[in-house]
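Cont'd.
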Amino acid sequence: AQTVTQSQPEMSVQEAETVTLSCTYDTSESDYYLFWYKQPPSRQMILVIRQEAYKQQNATENRFSVNFQKAAKSFSLKISDSQLGDAAMYFCAYRSPLRGGSQGNLIFGKGTKLSVKP
Amino acid sequence: KAGVTQTPRYLIKTRGQQVTLSCSPISGHRSVSWYQQTPGQGLQFLFEYFSETQRNKGNFPGRFSGRQFSNSRSEMNVSTLELGDSALYLCASSYRGGRSTDTQYFGPGTRLTVL
């Protein structure tokens, strides 16, 4: 079974600085998807960025980028120019591709709580 | 385009009762998945529906059930509520059209408190 591990329960960053959140996963599959979701205190889970395992290039969305190391099964999230609105719980998630009629469920890590200091 | 909506947002029930939660996916999305979020267990998958059929199920007791309607709206039901069922229940929808459209988008959740 696949597992996702986020080893940093809490992290803190100064406004305008850069922070990296770690995520490792375990799988025997070669094709899969990886995601970072953000959950602010209001509880609405928001997609931050996604990565398809077959793509070598690291995904980037504005100030958010990932470092995807397939061989090491590592998928870290870098937030540049941190803003107060970035404060939230960040969840790393894994999903298998479509198979047997099922889209495959998301498998989440325990999350990292990010605080942003003004 | 409107996002995923869930009703009600908050619910208080007592042990032994049953509850029904509703989820309306993003327009055009055909797949709905449900997750339970608790401080202790984190985010756990409940079930997935596509074309009115349950496609996948997590490791939850039979007290947890769901269904999907022809308009893709979904409901989940929990019977004989237990204190441990207190949680945030999240619904996520996706299009299910191919690789680039398989992302799940979440609703705001229903906060269920069992007394």
